[in-house]
Amino acid sequence: ECNIHSLINKSCNMSKGVELKNPNLARMPSDYLYHLAINVANTADTSDIQRQFGDVKVLCMGGTPSRMRELARYLRNELGNSDNSEPVDLAEAGHRYALFKEGPVLCASHGVGSSTASVVLHELLKLLKYAKCQDPIIIRIGTCGGVGVAPGTVVVTKDAYNGYLRNEHEIPILGKRVVRPAQFPEQVIQDILRLSKRSDDGFDTIMANTMSSDCFYEGQGRIDGAVCDYDDAAKMEFLKEAHKLGIRNIEMEATMLSSLTLQAGVKAADICVTLVNRLNGDQVEITPETKKDYEHRPFLIVGRYIKALLGK
Ligand code: R2B
Ligand code: URA
User: Fold this and answer.
1) Quick check: CB of 31 below 6 Å from ligand 1?
2) Any binding-site annotation on 141?
């Protein structure tokens, strides 16, 4: 049984390397991070990994390789590096995810949904551990559907709810239902919010709860998927119930991300921009220009947070 307060305190008070809760890792002479195609040849002496990744303070994650490449370019600029070369994909040989490094920031893609995101998150957490990174933070930036907020609003997740509208992460492990806490540390959220003001940004950044589903369509109460056996009234009832729980956005990774990072004792945050207000419809119909503008909003927020964190 996990105690949420001890987990959150642990992840807030971290001032040392990443200690993962898996005793088997200490018994493995080597570890191949398969989907990243990164080989940790000698787990007893990871000096090569430490040289390459040891300075990492922030791991940014987001759905697509192209957006994470763009984020790497944006952060390079924000951090005052005038290098104009194309960011190098360090995980290219794995053919699954993209991984870029800009000084002390890693930018990794995670695909759509908890299952693809958890694969790369397990491997990245191990990478942070082998590299002996000190007190790193993991920040997902992404898109989502809004629940009763204007499209373009940025939501920083507090409590993550699953598709049953329960504030927990539920997964089958060894054939059993395992339920784990799914919250993000509030201190990090407050630090992020302190750096954001509507008057400067032209959009709202709010703290709220998030629902994560494993399915974009039925799992999010859409009626425009390939299959749907409920009506519009049932959908609206569900969305309103979510709204009553303080849920203001719906995406597909928050429960897994909050749960796994709590277990690992690593600070994390989830910053997503809403593309549609689900109380008004299901289709994401914004123009490519508006989408680009909206997708840039979490860049702004995360860039500012990273600069403050690094004292820049
Ligand atoms: C938000 O957007 C993606 C689905 O379109 C998914 O990764 C998510 O959480
Ligand atoms: N991503 C989601 O998961 N849901 C939406 O409605 C939009 C983006």
Assistant:
1) no
2) yes
